[in-house]
Amino acid sequence: MTDTRTRMTASQAYAAVAQQDGLLYHIAHARKENSADDYDGDALKATSAETASTDIQQMREASALFRERSIPRG
Amino acid sequence: MEDLLFDEKTIQKRFEDFFDVADKFCLDYNDGQAVQVEIDPSLLYLAVVAIYDDVARYKAYHLKNPVKQKSNPVKRAAYAVKWLMHFSPLTFPQMGHISGQSGPENGDTLANAMFAIHFAMANLRVHTGVNFSLKRETQFELIYDLLYRGLTTDALILLFDILCDLARTGRVDAVIEV
């Protein structure tokens, strides 16, 4: 969340959507065992933090091509 | 199959990591912008659960021992693109729902496509150990396909595997023969 009035941490966001009496609670809370995948959350967050700004700049430049080309619309 | 689904603690950790990635993405996306993008935590939560349910299904179907064998980040990247485009957890609350004035390339669909591609690329960069980027034309074509065409997750897995092979080797002959 980027609005300073409503900005929350990741753990606050999880608590907000995963309360036991909440609508979303039962989606992920009836599991018995873990199914592993190759995951390094710290590396993922660090890599994302390093590259997000450049990715956004490059994708904005790429999406500018929408204005130069024919887009199929009804 | 139920025994293979990711457990609650894992989902919580993945959600919180995903939220941090999305939060940083929004900060960078909003830099210098008049209209600010925000995260809808409920939609992000639905996306995260759906991503890991799909990864678990993939493992159950394709792996001989899905409990012990690990799937790689390419699958996470592909299913993340699928569900981020489906649930669109990045929103522009200040804009409301304005329709008929512009194409999807001008609104929150584009922001979610850009976030989906960024999240996928971050996973592929960690997977390969190479900090690579797509060229402008390739980025445009991928964004175009996410907005206007139907890319299946199987097609995304194939595409991402090819990109990883190219990134690791730096050689086109890792993928094609001429």
Any key phrases for this structure?
heterodimer; A: mainly alpha; extended; B: 178 residues; mainly alpha; two-stranded antiparallel sheet; 62% helix; globular
Instruction: Kindly report the oligomeric state of this protein.
Output: heterodimer
Global mean pLDDT of chain A: 78
Largest beta sheet of chain B: what is the strand line-up?
1-2
How many structural domains are formed by the residues of chain B? 1
Percent strand of chain B equals under 5%
Rg on CA atoms of chain B, Å: 17 Å
| Unreliably modeled segments of chain A | none
The largest contact between protein chains, plus residue counts on each side, is:
A-B, 52 and 75 residues
Give the end-to-end Cα distance of chain B, rounded to a whole number of Å. Answer: 44 Å
Q: Could you say which structural class the secondary elements and strand pairing of chain B correspond to?
A: mainly alpha
Number of helices of chain B: 6
| Biggest sheet features of chain A | none
Overall number of strands of chain B: 2
- Helical content of chain B, roughly? 55-70%
Annotation, overall tally of beta strands of chain A: 0
Mean pLDDT of chain B: 89
Helix-strand topology string of chain B: HEHHEHHH
